[in-house]
Amino acid sequence: MLTVNRVERIQGRIQVPGDKSISHRAVMFASIAKGKSTIEGFLPGEDCLSTVACCRGLGIDIKQEGTFLEVQGKGQYGLQEPENLLDAGNSGTTMRLLSGILAGQSFLSVITGDGSLRKRPMARIANPLRQMGAKIDGRVGGKLAPLIIRGGNLEGIDYTLPVPSAQVKSAILLAGLYASGETIVREEFLSRDHTERMLQFFGGNLERRDGSVVLKKSELYGQSVKVPGDISSAAFFMAAAAAMPGGHLIIEDVGLNPTRTGIIDVLREMGAHIRIDNIYSSGGEDLGTVIVEGGKLKGITITKEIMPRLIDEVPVIAAISALAEGTMRITGAEELKVKESNRIAAMVTELKKLGIQAEELEDGMEITGTGRISGGVVESYGDHRIAMAMAVCGLFAQEPVQIQNSECIAVSFPGFEKTLKEITW
Ligand SMILES: O=C(O)C1=C[C@@H](OP(=O)(O)O)[C@@H](O)[C@H](O)C1
Ligand SMILES: C=C(OP(=O)(O)O)C(=O)O
């Protein structure tokens, strides 16, 4: 159980661990690339370690020393039939992206995960991968994991995403590496495009045409990847510093891919002062220093257009909305219901336990800021983002906030508590 006490100051200069989305992709792409890859700044969180374990289960030699990885890629057709179940743990990204790769293999794989992942929707990837020619079965008519995949002989498809999801887009593109003809993915609002950028970086034949991604069957080649700091982890501290009058926080080497910076746009619209400095590029991704000055925030309305660029940051936005003036209305966020927990229900229930005025909407939530957060015991639902969002509430609460089942924070942010202590007084 993590206990977070009220603080008076948020100040400091920090770095956050490597980006989770990019760490997963780097390991997977390196595994199916020809030759050795190195990965620097890898996130040694539980989710990414699940990806490493699955790739090892497919016969890939991966050496890990903290945040440094060396992967001996065996080329597109070098993976071996796994002797046992592949376990994606709590990680939707592992299960969905890896399924795209497994759809290209003629051998049999069975991929499963923990209790939360086994409840999350998998038809969204199974359907397009079946259309490409893979055989995929699973519980409840092939909709839930464990998934049983026998792939091979794929054909490209032209697919418009029915749900805004970078994981679905990525699964199709990874299968597209093995498919004849062109694989085309279209989406209404651009979701995180790390797969597109990294496929190009590894030598994949990928083009972007009028809002769609077009991929032709291609071979990847080993590379050296430097993983940027995770803006989704930085978001907890950015939001806390923004809501604390007098707060001053500098976060270095943060990934600033424009498909991930919705949190900066939202905090600015809420009245926060955020500056970006020292921008540079590495491996097709932008990085930079984020400087946050704290002050008084106001509630705003968020709609579905920004959601793909903001999705994992909604819990912490909800948390600081309690401190903002007026009402925060978050809409177009249905996808939050199918994350590690139902993040709409979880946040509303737990915020109410701290005396915050919160209400569920069909596609989001509404929070009315009173500036007052009481203390108490709250639940994480085994969901890392809920646990960290509630920790942010604790920094502003009248009494300590105790977060039950907080170990799940290690899924995406090992060292969260240590960094939190370093910047708060
Ligand atoms: O592609 C990715 O790395 C991710 C995509 C998002 O999920 P969806 O694709 O389900 O929206 C996000 O919530 C998740 O944390 C990571
Ligand atoms: C939704 C998340 O991850 P995943 O889908 O990979 O489990 C997350 O990290 O907030």
TrEMBL record:
Looking at the keywords, is Cytoplasm present?
Answer: yes
- Residues annotated as catalytic: 312
Q: Which GO terms describe its biological process?
A: amino acid biosynthetic process; aromatic amino acid family biosynthetic process; chorismate biosynthetic process
Q: Which Pfam families match?
A: EPSP_synthase
- Kindly report the protein's main subcellular placement as a broad class: cytoplasm
Subcellular location, record wording = Cytoplasm
Q: Return the Gene3D superfamilies for the record.
A: Enolpyruvate transferase domain
Q: Could you say which residues bind phosphoenolpyruvate here? A: 20, 92, 120, 167, 343, 385
Please write the reaction equations for the catalytic activity of this protein: 3-phosphoshikimate + phosphoenolpyruvate = 5-O-(1-carboxyvinyl)-3-phosphoshikimate + phosphate
Q: What does this protein do?
A: Catalyzes the transfer of the enolpyruvyl moiety of phosphoenolpyruvate (PEP) to the 5-hydroxyl of shikimate-3-phosphate (S3P) to produce enolpyruvyl shikimate-3-phosphate and inorganic phosphate.
Provide the assembly information: Monomer.
Instruction: Tell me its family.
Output: Belongs to the EPSP synthase family.
Name of the protein described by the UniProt record: 3-phosphoshikimate 1-carboxyvinyltransferase
Origin species: Geosporobacter ferrireducens
Q: Which gene encodes it?
A: aroA
